[in-house]
């Protein structure tokens, strides 16, 4: 078991598992084509904490908590918990914020882009192409010596900070359960309509999150890494897991009657294809420069990577900015200031790529 998940069969098994469980979570109550979406779920958590007041996207998603705690469990069991931090934290925070903004212009993270395609949403193709283009641009800077520097070993307690935060959020949710028809319960906000009001039962979501976090930590599953490895090294190991996720999700969606092929009328999606592409171009470039997709950042944080935790906090703050300042899209299209935010984010990525290079 210790080496299985690092094998070709192991990464395929992880992709199949996620591809099966995500449509099931949708079937059990999560939003359409959003059985799992790291960006959207972190955005919902941001709303649940009152950091933005978009009432249709406020729910403390247990899947995210499970990802981090499941990764922590795997790292502790297999003695892979390695507390480290200190590699350009401010840059990582900014990259996390703009990655979230790009993802919310598209309306989904890389996982959701694949799941949208598996559910028949053809607009997801533009998002996936944008993601690949952003990652490709990132690899050009890698070849020119781009680096955020090397993290340093740190205290065990520092590596536990994000897992402890997630455990605290779970305790908060248990102490302040949703009251039917009430927007706020205790200190948490709960959507009573819209995507935030659609969720699988709490403990099912948590168990799925724990399981996915455990196996993803062992396999190093990462959608950004899959495309980066193909572009840079011609290696398809991680890509096999992504393909397995797509195939499994398409099959399960078909069996559950959750497929609707086309562009129009897709759940929590818009058809402004230029900005579907551009949003994920920005997100993909940010993921490449930061060293991992949003799911991978959660799994890294669970195994003690403080820099990944900083990226996660950046995404949470980015979600607050996106909804407080009209940057996020909706089914009606891109937000009033979303296009400007994309261009600013691309300029920031270019600035980082040109200035953060290892010196000979």
TrEMBL record:
The protein's superkingdom reads Bacteria
Q: List UniProt keywords, sorted A-Z.
A: Membrane, Transmembrane, Transmembrane helix
Q: Which residues cross the membrane?
A: 9-28, 59-78, 90-113, 125-142, 154-176, 196-216, 237-257, 277-296, 308-328, 334-354
Asked if the keyword DNA damage belongs to this entry, the reply reads no
What protein name applies here?
A: Uncharacterized protein
């Amino acid at each position: 078991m210790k080496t299985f998940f690092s094998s070709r069969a192991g990464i395929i098994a992880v992709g199949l598992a996620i591809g099966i469980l995500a449509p099931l979570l949708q079937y059990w109550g999560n939003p359409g084509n959003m059985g799992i979406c790291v960006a959207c779920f972190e955005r919902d958590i941001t709303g649940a904490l009152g950091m933005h007041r978009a009432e249709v996207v406020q729910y403390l998603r247990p899947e995210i908590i499970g990802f981090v705690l499941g990764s922590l469990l795997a790292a502790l069991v297999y003695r892979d918990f390695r507390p480290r931090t200190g590699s350009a934290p401010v840059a990582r925070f900014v990259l996390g914020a703009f990655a979230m903004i790009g993802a919310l212009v598209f309306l989904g993270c890389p996982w959701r882009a694949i799941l949208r395609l598996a559910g028949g949403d053809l607009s997801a193709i533009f998002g996936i192409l944008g993601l690949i283009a952003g990652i490709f641009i990132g690899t050009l800077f890698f070849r020119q010596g781009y680096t955020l520097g090397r993290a340093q070993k740190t205290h065990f307690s520092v590596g536990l900070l994000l897992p402890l935060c997630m455990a605290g959020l779970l305790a908060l949710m248990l102490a302040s359960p949703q009251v039917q028809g009430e927007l706020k319960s205790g200190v948490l906000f709960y959507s009573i309509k819209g995507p935030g009001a659609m969720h699988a039962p709490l403990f099912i979501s948590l168990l799925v999150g724990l399981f996915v976090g455990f196996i993803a930590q062992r396999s190093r599953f990462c959608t950004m890494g899959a495309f980066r490895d193909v572009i840079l090294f011609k290696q398809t190991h991680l890509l096999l897991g992504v393909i397995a996720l797509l195939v499994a999700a398409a099959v399960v969606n078909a069996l559950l009657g959750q497929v609707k092929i086309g562009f129009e009328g897709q759940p929590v999606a818009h058809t402004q294809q230029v900005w579907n592409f551009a949003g994920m171009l920005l997100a993909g470039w940010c993921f490449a420069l930061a060293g991992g997709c949003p799911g991978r950042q959660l799994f890294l944080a669970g195994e003690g990577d403080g820099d990944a935790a900083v990226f996660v906090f950046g995404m949470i703050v980015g979600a607050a900015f996106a909804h407080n300042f009209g940057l996020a899209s909706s089914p009606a299209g891109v937000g009033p200031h979303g296009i400007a935010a994309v261009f600013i984010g691309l300029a920031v990525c270019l600035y980082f790529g040109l200035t953060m290079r290892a010196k000979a």
